[in-house]
UniProtKB/TrEMBL annotation, chain A:
It comes from the Eukaryota. Keywords: Membrane, Protein transport, Transport. It comes from Chloropicon roscoffensis. The keyword Protein transport applies. Transmembrane segments: none annotated. Residues 705-816 form the Beta-adaptin appendage C-terminal subdomain domain. This is Beta-adaptin-like protein. Residues 666-678 have a biased composition (Pro residues). PANTHER family: ADAPTOR COMPLEX SUBUNIT BETA FAMILY MEMBER. The keyword Iron does not apply.
TrEMBL record, chain B:
Keywords: Membrane, Protein transport, Transport. This is Mu subunit of clathrin adaptor. GO terms for cellular component: clathrin adaptor complex; endomembrane system. Gene3D superfamilies: 3.30.450.60, Mu homology domain, subdomain B. It comes from Chloropicon roscoffensis. InterPro entries: Adaptor_comp_med_subunit, AP2_Mu_C_sf, Clathrin_mu, Longin-like_dom_sf, MHD. It comes from the Eukaryota. Belongs to the adaptor complexes medium subunit family. It holds the Pfam family Adap_comp_sub. It is found in: Endomembrane system. Residues 333-353 are annotated as: Disordered.
Length: 820, 450
């Protein structure tokens, strides 16, 4: 608390000093030797001294204001101390102060308005502009009436400096009250200025204001407007030029000649040193020619040079921006850049982010002619001290190999040679890439699988890499003699492994079992045993699922698990062409940097934002919840269950059958796999002998849930209202918040299907149902999760009076084990 | 904002970013710890948190940060921020935490003129002067006359810390500096051949001329720019300076550039890049490095590196630093003729004897060579002790060698400023403004693979 005490002291100290200056024109006798900048304590202060002292005091007040110390308490003194004054420096400081605290002290601000409006009529244009700017920046809705007259006068001021300020003032007023702008027909006035004003900055400001206040900005773009802007383009400042070009990029010329005219006018902008301007020009070029493929291609060739120059000539921040945009173009037309691949080589001093983007570009431009050069270069990056870059490089080599397909022989060998480097993360990443590669390049499976023969699994630590290895062994274990033994070693340490490796081990063992039953049955038993004992719900469930599947229908199991490994040509992670187009439309914005369209990261409706702002200004924090309403419009489902289920049933209802789901996740089952040399059935009997090892504990004797219950929303609604047998309990756990997102899925595993769910922080609701196996009894569940208190309140209903208690305790048990 | 996360100055223009005061906190946390799990990940120069876009540059030991709610053009914002940085330099002499703190009122005044409601306004240093009334507080330790600073060009190009607002104390003459700064990126392959090279050059102008006189700058007449169909046909001829691409400052007149390679301009006061260029033509590298790795026992490798300075004798590189990563399994390194224990290099009579250091944490050796004269040759040796058997794959963990240096008076592209004229000087009282043309080559990414 000490610092706060101290600043409080400072505030009152400053207050006292201000008061003294107002009274006597000088500071009180310095007691602490700390007085203002020139604390001459003499009684006969000249106006000059007073000015210096005032400036010093104002300066320290602003200093505290900057470091977030509340200085609003000095408002009155500030105003008195500075009126009347002709000292512009003092005025500027005062206005800055007023603008900062006007929202907190709207009443006191009224005192200052008078001075401000008077200054708007000053003979010095600098003062007029300053006053007008400050007046418009107050952001106090009640004071709007005072600024309208000065604003209107300002728009017709003879000095361009004032007009510029006034134009932006219109936007500021618009944000406070759009109706006033309409009433005063300011839009019309702005359009006139936009078209006719002599000063280019006034025109530029009108453009940016008009774009924000006009209902359909698209209508502004007319041929004469575009032409007149382009003709005087060079009068504009470089920033305004960017704005103009952004505006022009939305223009669609009538014919090819017009396109060429525009491009000729803009040609020299490409050799400007400002990267923003060059990117804006490129955007115009690309969008103008999008419908004329051969010209478009010429444009791409033309802009390569400037982009390469900018990628290295500026600071790391701009390099990254340029590189990201370049990447977008490279990925649209890799062919065009395939000669320039050396431009994308990473430099020692490139930032990590630039290196990452360059690796992506190298990956894109690699083709038969340059792939070996590129891969040789990338291999050098694998030893980069930065682990991320090292991993990305290996990934890049893998991707290039996958993209090239048939001719990838040598590249795969390069990839495998990373295994000899004895660096943990290099090895790990190589395995991960390998798992992708075998799916993509069936020809290379042999090589990759052979490389696993020498594997010492204990040396691989990363869970992702272990998962990848296990996956390969599961899918292609029939081609590698050692496969079961490697898996066996890994199962020994099952309990210490990461859950994802455990899951992979379960699947791999089950898959390999169908390929090599005699060698693998022991492995399968071990892994199922360990898995079913796991505290991790997913692992536990998967183990049980495999166990039951194998036990119930070996044919079905073989269909699900024993199918041939999937192959695929491409992976979902690569930018889809829809996304690429979306990003291309938003060229020269943040979208290419983030790799996602603007709608993902900026608020959609900006009007709402500003309105909330006003609420906050007027009445403190009342407006805050408005913002949450705007984005969290999800149904809350309080009383009307049906509404909720209608809205959300689609989320849950269709996936009812766990088997169907499993086979959807796996590749479509092929025609029954040929029976393995030894009858799996016989082996399975042996498995059965081990039964005690696979506990079925969670399933209470009376309650056996059907794996595929069915019910529609209407019936649920009706039953919920009519059923009388019910039981309620509460489960508490600090983990509730973390578990809620997956709750529906994990309950599905025990046969409880979520019909509907919804809500938002901190309360979520779930409506679930289940069915007794072999009987018609149904169970309904309402679960209210409070993530703040960490409590799950459950109400169960059933049509069977006998089963309601056992079901409730079964459900409680499952839920408890899931959330704790 | 300082690198410690304190906001030094801030200004909220549009008021659409909620709880503006918290943004600096959000930014600081993100910028310093981008990814909790992986320390190797650092924040990109722009990122988005809760619908607020953060864009920043880091310069002079401070962050310049901009926030927005819109999908802005990052290039525009970042260029604008660097322009702001330049303006601060122009007005306060230097850009650092101290100068910003001392001049914050002036900077508020500047900011208000530079940008209004998020729309960039005036950014020309001398136009701004008309509206600026506060005087800058200049750093004290620097001499008033900039030319005195020239003498101590230690690391980088001489720093001129002078405000455009400071009145000249020494007579009426102005000054103009034209620096040709080239950044060299060369990659040598393991057999010493240049595998990839590029020069990123820039003609930097710092003008302290009053009244925007007309300045004419002439470059080599044999300058050619690839892919441009101008007076020169650049193909087929292999003489002259050939550039891949270049770009120019906003306010320069290139009407005669295609005819006689002259650029005319009325320079605004302050600092700007007149021309940026790039070439990937073959260049003569100023340094060549040959490295050999020899086994000297099962767990020992001897690293011998020969560095030859292949430039004219009159040129001296003030400092050359050579660094090479070594395998993770390195236990210790000794530098022969040095004290073998601590790995710190000693001296061996000669003043220019390289000093070797083993950076244990980063697993890297660096040598620093002082005053490397053109034509000289230096050999450095390190004995590396490993805790695993030396093997072929282990040797891959050595390298690449990277060189860091700067070479005053040296220019690899041979691009030259032939003359620099200040025209229409009639108003001046006979005295010519001082003109400085300086050349400098710096290493950007100078890599030799092993």
């Amino acid at each position: 608390m000490a610092p706060r005490e101290k600043t409080k002291g400072e505030v009152s100290d400053l207050k006292a000093k201000l008061a003294a200056v107002i009274k006597t024109g000088t500071l009180p006798q310095p007691k602490d030797g700390k007085g203002g900048s020139s604390g001459k304590g003499s009684a006969s202060a000249t106006p000059k001294d007073t000015q210096t002292i005032k400036r010093g005091l104002f300066k320290s007040i602003l200093h505290y204001m900057t470091i977030n110390v509340d200085m609003s308490g000095l408002f009155t003194q500030m105003i008195i101390a500075s009126t009347p004054t002709n000292d512009i420096v003092l005025k500027k400081m005062l206005y800055l102060y007023i603008c900062t605290y006007a929202q907190q002290k709207p009443d006191l601000t009224l005192l200052a308005v008078n001075t401000l409006t008077k200054d708007c009529g000053d003979s010095d244009p600098t003062v007029r502009g300053l006053a007008l700017r400050s007046l418009c920046s107050l952001r106090v809705p009640n004071l709007i009436e005072y600024l309208l007259q000065p604003l209107k006068t300002g728009l017709s001021d003879r000095d361009a400096y004032v007009r510029r300020t006034a134009v932006l003032g219109v936007l500021k007023v618009f944000r406070l009250d759009p109706n006033i702008v309409e009433e005063l027909e300011l839009e019309l006035k702005l359009k006139e200025m936009f078209a006719n004003d002599q000063d280019s900055q006034v025109v530029a400001n009108s453009l940016s204001v008009l774009q924000q206040i006009v209902r359909s900005p698209q209508d502004l773009i007319t041929k004469p407007v575009v032409y007149s802007l382009l003709n005087r383009l060079k009068e504009f400042s470089e920033w305004s030029q960017c704005a103009v070009l952004e505006f022009v990029s939305n223009y669609r010329p009538e014919d090819g000649d017009e396109t060429f005219d525009i491009m000729n006018v803009l040609e020299d902008r490409l050799q400007h040193s400002n990267s923003a301007l060059v990117l804006a020009t490129i955007k115009v070029f690309l969008h103008l020619t999008i419908a004329i493929p051969d010209i478009h291609q010429q444009v791409l060739e033309r802009i390569r040079g400037p982009l390469f120059t900018m990628m290295h000539n500026k600071g790391p921040e701009i390099s990254y921006t340029v590189a990201s945009h370049l990447r977008l173009l490279v990925e649209r037309a890799p062919m065009l850049f395939s000669q320039d691949y050396k431009q994308f080589y990473c430099r020692y001093n490139d930032s990590i982010h630039v290196k990452k983007v360059k690796l992506k570009m190298l990956t894109s431009v690699a083709d038969e002619s340059n792939a070996y050069d590129i891969v040789n270069e990338i291999c050098e990056y694998a030893t980069d001290p930065n682990e991320t870059i090292s991993r990305e490089s290996i990934k890049a080599v893998g991707t290039i190999a996958m993209n090239l397909g048939q001719t990838a022989d040598g590249l795969v060998e390069r990839l495998l040679s990373f295994l000899d480097m004895n660096m943990d993360h290099v090895t790990a990443e190589t395995y991960i890439v390998m798992a992708d590669m075998v799916r993509c390049l069936p020809d290379q499976v042999e090589k990759c699988v052979d490389a696993l023969a020498l594997l010492k699994s204990v040396e691989v630590v990363s869970p992702e890499a272990r998962e990848a290895i296990v996956w390969i062994l599961g899918a292609y274990g029939d081609r590698l003699q050692e496969a079961p033994y490697i898996l066996e070693t890994m199962v020994l340490g099952f309990d210490e492994d990461h859950a994802r490796t455990q899951l992979a081990l379960l699947t791999a063992a089950a898959k390999l079992f169908f390929k090599r039953p005699p060698e693998c049955h022991r492995l399968l038993i071990d892994v199922l045993e360990k898995g079913s004992e796991s505290a991790n719900q997913d692992v536990h469930d998967r183990a049980l699922f495999y166990f039951r599947l194998l036990k119930r229908d070996i044919q079905a199991a073989s269909q699900v698990l024993g199918s041939a490994p999937p192959t695929t040509a491409t992976f979902g992670e690569q930018l889809g062409s829809d996304l690429k187009d979306a990003l291309f439309k938003e060229f020269n914005s943040l979208s290419p940097l983030y790799g996602e369209p603007a709608s993902n990261f900026v608020a959609g409706d900006e009007e709402i934002e500003y309105e909330i702002d006003l609420y906050e200004n007027a009445g403190g924090e009342n407006g805050a919840q408005g913002g949450e309403d705007a984005n969290g419009g999800a149904a809350y489902a309080d009383t009307n269950l049906l509404d909720l289920s209608d809205d959300l049933a689609s989320l849950a209802a269709p996936v009812a059958d766990p088997q169907a789901q499993a086979s959807a996740a796996q590749p479509p089952p092929q025609q029954a796999a040929p029976p393995a040399p030894q009858d799996p059935m016989a082996l399975l009997d042996m498995l059965d002998v081990q039964k005690p090892a696979v506990p079925v504990a969670p399933v209470a004797p009376a309650v056996r849930l059907s794996p595929s219950p069915s019910m529609d929303a209407g019936k649920f609604q009706q039953l919920w209202g009519s059923l009388a047998n019910q039981d309620s309990f509460v489960v508490s756990s600090p983990q509730v918040r973390a578990r809620v997102p997956e709750l529906a899925n994990s309950m599905k595993a025990i046969g409880v299907i979520t019909m509907a769910s919804g809500g938002q922080e901190p309360v979520y609701k779930f409506y679930q149902y289940a069915q007794q196996e072999g009987a018609n009894s149904v169970y309904l569940v309402e679960l209210i999760a409070n993530t703040q208190g960490g409590a799950l309140s459950v109400t169960c209903k059933s049509d069977s009076a006998a089963l309601i208690k056992p079901f409730a305790s079964f459900y409680q048990q499952s839920l408890t084990s899931y959330v704790t | 904002m300082s690198l410690r996360g304190d906001t030094i100055i801030s200004r909220d223009f549009t008021g659409d970013v909620h709880k503006v005061k918290t943004t600096s906190e959000v930014f600081y946390t993100k910028a310093n710890r981008w990814d909790e799990a992986n320390a190797d990940e650092v924040a990109p120069p722009s990122f988005s948190v809760d619908g607020v876009q953060y864009l920043y540059i880091k310069t002079g030991g401070v962050y310049l940060l901009a926030t927005s709610r819109k999908n802005v053009s990052p290039a525009l914002v970042l260029e604008f921020l660097s322009r702001v940085a330049n303006i601060i330099k122009d007005y306060c002499g230097v850009l650092n935490e101290e100068s910003i703190r001392q001049n914050f009122v002036l900077l508020y005044e500047l900011l208000d003129e530079i940008i209004d409601y998020g729309v960039p306004q005036n950014t020309a240093t001398d136009v701004l002067k008309r509206y600026i009334l506060n005087r800058p507080i200049l750093p004290e330790h620097l001499p008033m006359k900039s030319s005195a600073v020239l003498a101590k060009g230690v690391g980088k190009a001489p720093v001129i810390s002078k405000s455009v607002l400071s009145r000249d104390t020494s007579g009426k003459k102005g000054e103009i500096f034209v620096d040709i700064v080239e950044k060299l990126s060369i990659t040598f392959n393991s057999s010493g051949y240049v595998q990839n090279s590029a020069i990123d050059g820039s003609i930097q102008v710092k003008s302290y001329l009053s009244g925007r006189p007309l300045v004419k700058i002439a470059l080599n007449e044999d300058l050619q720019i690839a892919g441009r169909s101008d007076g020169y046909n650049s193909y087929g001829s292999n003489y002259g300076v050939l550039l891949d691409d270049c770009n120019f400052y906003e306010h320069c007149n290139l009407d005669n550039f295609d005819i006689d390679r002259t650029i005319t301009l009325n320079p605004s006061q302050g600092e700007f890049a007149l021309m940026n260029y790039r070439t990937t033509r073959e260049i003569r590298p100023p340094f060549r490095v040959t490295t050999s790795l020899n086994d000297s026992g099962a767990f020992k490798v001897e690293l011998v590196m020969k560095i030859r300075a292949e430039f004219a004798q009159r040129i001296v590189a003030p400092a050359l630093s050579v660094s090479i990563p070594v395998p993770k399994s390195t236990v210790s390194i000794s530098f022969p003729t040095d004290n073998p224990r601590d790995g710190k290099g000693g001296k061996q009579g000669q003043a220019s004897q390289p000093v070797g250091t083993f950076l244990e944490r980063e697993k890297k050796i660096t040598w620093t060579l002082k005053k490397v004269q053109g034509g000289s040759e230096h050999i450095v040796v390190a004995r590396v002790s490993l805790n695993s058997q030396s093997s072929v794959s282990l040797k891959k963990e050595f390298g690449p060698v990277s060189l860091q240096f700067n070479l005053p008076l040296f220019n690899s592209s041979r691009l030259q400023v032939k003359y620099l004229q200040i025209l229409n000087q009639s108003a001046e009282k006979g005295q010519n403004p001082a003109r400085w043309i300086r050349y400098m080559t710096e290493s950007s990414s100078y890599i030799c693979r092993i």
